[in-house]
Request: fold
Amino acid sequence: MLLVLDVGNTNTVMGIVDAQTVRHRWRISTAPRTTDELGLLLLQLLEHRRVLLSDISGICVCCVVPSLLFTVEKVCRRYLKHEPLVVGVGIRTGMRIRMDNPKEVGADRIVNAVAGFERHGGPLVVVDFGTATTFDCISKEGVYLGGAIAPGFQISADALFTRTAMLPRVEVEQPETAIGTNTIQGIQSGLFWGYVGLVDGLARRCKKELHQKSQQPVRCVATGGLANLVGRSCVEVDEVDDTLTLHGLWLIYDRNRPRRPRS
Reply:
């Protein structure tokens, strides 16, 4: 079994992957924790699912918060007894990156692209609903071409509440209609359907440009924390894949695993 950790700016998603199947999955807040605090939390989560340390054969980490990476690596060594594979420069991904500066592409975006192409083929657009919403474009040959970065849903909502004096903070949910008959419904409509429009608009443009390059149909897959809430309402999203990032971490770990020489 492989333990995979996707450390994002807002949430950290962890999972146990066995033979390409995500057996268990947890989501915790990404917060400054000591090595002992994080280590004990991980042990409790594993114990709750009756996963023994001896069952874990390796660990793969994707982290976009550099200040937390040292703690995560230390926890892996001290509490889980493994040297983690950290996705970054020098790691074999099996995917060419056609960017002006490949080193500046976030590790989470490459992980999603690798998993997306493996699972769904290309050309493909992967939309990840995280702290920022990212759009990653992969060619039919499996080359990472780039994409777009937009403010995340929660960032947009927080900006609305903090920059206005009279508008209340409301629960995020899908309204039944676009025309709200009160202030709360109006805010919910603007946030939800406005964000759906943002995702559909960017995804449609990315699809069009990929189609012009390949002359083939382009799929769009959504993942991330709000994929089920927002992604399923987007016309341009063809499928929601909750475990895409975790599967990508398994793939990258497998591609960097030492191979036994053939006899």
Observations:
- The mean pLDDT is 92.
- The beta strands are 2-7, 11-18, 21-29, 58-63, 85-86, 124-129, 132-138, 144-151, 219-224, 239-240.
